[in-house]
């Protein structure tokens, strides 16, 4: 119970100075599929433990580091489901192995695909009774796309809001990439509460637009 066993900490960033201790095994010159900061993972765990969500959705599974914290919190809550999507099949396979190793697979449904299409994918799964029906996402964590460009991030945001009622959105990398920060600044006035948590790469939190 509690935080995941961080057997993978060697591939995680130093939580306080954001110096990466080592690159992922599939690192190449163009893209690095690195995990979130350790303290960001701990915050995600705390959000889930504190707000007791039934439905959590994540874009950008990568190798499953953030999913571990989200899934472990659902396990410790003893209810809820994480739906997460990753485009890269190799990364997704590694994430699924991590979820299995941590014994949280029953709380995590991981899919391969484009994150901009995830709202439609979820709707199709619901219509086919493949997953339980829901029209509200309690926590949406947006962290897809290697470049975190504006167009991809705003498309994700709009596509989800067009399909679901969303209680909380957390955007990652708003202090390290201009795209997510621009989206956060544009939409924050549509929400009752907004805040920036100054982790090494930044978490933007949007709450209660009802």
List the helices and strands and how they pair.
Layout: H1 38-51, E1 55-59, H2 65-77, E2 81-86, H3 89-101, E3 108-112, H4 118-127, E4 136-137, E5 139-142, H5 150-163, E6 165-166, E7 168-172, H6 178-187, E8 193-197, E9 203-207
Parallel strand pairs: 1-2, 1-5, 2-3, 4-6, 5-7
Antiparallel strand pairs: 7-9, 8-9
Helix pairs in contact: 1-2, 4-5, 5-6
State the shape: globular
Whole-angstrom Rg:
16 Å
Taking pLDDT < 50 over at least 5 consecutive residues as the criterion, the unreliable ranges are 7-33
Number of domains: 1
Order of helices and strands: HEHEHEHEEHEEHEE
Q: Share of helix among residues?
A: 25-40%
Characterize the main sheet.
Answer: 7 strands, mixed
The CATH architecture would be 3-Layer(aba) Sandwich
Could you explain the architecture of this structure?
With 210 residues, this protein is an alpha/beta fold. It has a single domain (37-207), classed as 3-Layer(aba) Sandwich (Rossmann fold), CATH 3.40.50. Helices cover 35% and strands 19% of the residues. The chain has 6 helices and 9 strands, in the order H-E-H-E-H-E-H-E-E-H-E-E-H-E-E. The termini are far apart.
Give a quick summary of the entry.
With 210 residues, the chain is an alpha/beta fold. Helix content is 35%, strand content 19%.
Features:
210 residues, Rossmann fold, seven-stranded mixed β-sheet, two-stranded parallel sheet, 9 strands, 19% strand, globular
């Amino acid at each position: 119970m509690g935080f995941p066993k961080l057997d993978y900490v060697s591939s995680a960033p130093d939580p306080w100075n954001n110096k990466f201790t080592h690159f992922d095994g599939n690192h190449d010159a163009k893209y690095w599929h690195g995990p979130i900061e350790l303290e960001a993972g701990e915050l995600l765990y705390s959000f889930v433990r504190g707000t007791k969500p039934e439905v959590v959705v994540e874009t950008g599974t990568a190798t499953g580091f953030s999913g571990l914290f989200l899934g472990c919190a659902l396990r410790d809550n003893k209810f809820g489901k994480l739906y997460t999507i990753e485009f890269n099949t190799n990364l997704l396979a590694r994430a699924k192995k991590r979820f299995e190793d941590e014994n949280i697979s029953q709380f995590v449904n991981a899919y391969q695909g484009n994150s901009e299409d995830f709202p439609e994918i979820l709707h199709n799964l619901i219509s086919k009774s493949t997953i339980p029906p829901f029209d509200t996402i309690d926590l949406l964590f947006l962290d897809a796309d290697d470049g975190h460009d504006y167009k991809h991030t705003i498309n994700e945001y709009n596509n989800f809001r067009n399909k679901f009622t969303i209680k909380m959105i957390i955007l990652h990398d708003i202090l390290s990439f201009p795209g997510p920060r621009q989206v956060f600044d544009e939409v924050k006035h549509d929400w009752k509460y907004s805040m920036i948590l100054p982790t090494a790469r930044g978490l933007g939190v949007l709450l209660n637009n009802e």
